[in-house]
Specification:
mainly beta, 14 strands, three-stranded antiparallel β-sheet, 2 helices, elongated, 32% strand
């Protein structure tokens, strides 16, 4: 049985980059576990057509809107950010001991492309204690899947985005069939995630703007891009 839930990630270290969409995270976990009804995660690549990930079973409810089957879950909601900064990660090929090579082994190495390319790129890092998702799903199965997730965001191997604890609690009956895509408030329904342009959308949505991008996982694949409304 699927309930209205509030999922919370208690962070042990700072978050690098952005927190993931909950449906994307659960699809990735399911594909990596190698279940029979899933598409292996390693076969999803920008250079190939995107597979139908909607047939991958996840413990979230999905519903149709604008021709897309979208998960009933909000985008990640960050707690108060106490420190918002940029760090940098860099790479260059080591040439310090090139002079020790035999003259016949010395070569010209390009540093502008391929695996030898040098770079120094910015990385947004934020100090936040909690990250929350509102969703409709199976509480027990969500927590069972997330036991495999020890970190979220970018550069977890560098110590960023470590999750100290996952917590999932019921928040009562589901207020309306499309909760939590939008949540009712005194000023009108507030948009809580990107959604495709569709006639099913309320005409008085608050905090929404038109944009272009994905509404379902994998969010980074160009096959998923469409006209949409997104929180602002």
């Amino acid at each position: 049985m699927h309930d209205a839930l509030r999922l919370t990630a208690y962070m042990a270290t700072d978050l690098a980059g952005d927190a993931p969409h909950l449906d994307s995270l659960l699809v990735y976990i399911s594909s990596r576990l190698g279940r029979k009804d899933t598409v292996p995660g390693y076969k999803v690549d920008r250079k190939y057509s995107c597979p139908d990930t909607s047939r991958i079973a996840i413990p979230l409810s999905r519903a149709w809107i604008g021709g897309w089957r979208v998960a009933l879950a909000t985008t990640p909601i960050l707690d108060e950010v106490s420190n918002d900064r940029h760090e940098y990660f860099a790479k260059r090929i080591g040439v310090e001991h090139a002079g020790l090579l035999d003259p016949g082994e010395r070569k010209v190495v390009t540093t502008t492309n391929n695996w030898t390319k040098s770079h120094r790129l910015p990385l947004r890092v934020r100090s936040v204690k909690r990250i929350v998702w509102l969703c409709v799903g199976n509480r027990r199965e969500i927590l069972k899947s997330l036991r495999y997730v020890l970190a979220i965001g970018k550069k977890p191997a560098h110590g960023h985005g470590r999750v100290a604890k996952w917590e999932c609690e019921r928040v009562g009956p589901i207020p309306h069939p499309r909760w939590p895509w939008w949540i009712d408030s005194e000023v009108g329904p507030v948009l809580m995630r990107p959604l495709p342009i569709a006639t099913e959308l309320p005409t008085n949505l608050v905090g929404a703007r038109r944009g272009y991008g994905a509404c379902i996982d994998p969010y980074w694949h160009s096959d998923r891009d469409c006209e949409r409304i997104e929180p602002c």
